[in-house]
Amino acid sequence: MPKIGVVTFPGSLDDRDAQRAVRIAGAEPVALWHGDHDLQDVDAVVLPGGFSYGDYLRCGAIAAQQPIMREIVDAAGRGLLVLGVCNGFQVLVESHLLPGGLVRNDRGTFVCRDQRLRIENAETAWTNEFEVGEEIVIPLKNGEGGYITDDETLKMLEGEGRVVFRYVDVNPNGSMNDIAGLTNERGNVVGLMPHPEHAVEPGFGPDTPAAMRSGIDGLRLFTSAIGSLLARV
Amino acid sequence: MIVVEVMPKPELLDPAGKATLGALQRGGHEKFASVRIGKRFELTIDGPATEQALAEARTLAEDFLANTVIEDVVAVYVGGAEDEMDEFTEVIAGETH
Question: Which of A107, A123, A137, B96 has the most CB within a 10 Å radius?
Answer without folding.
Answer: A137
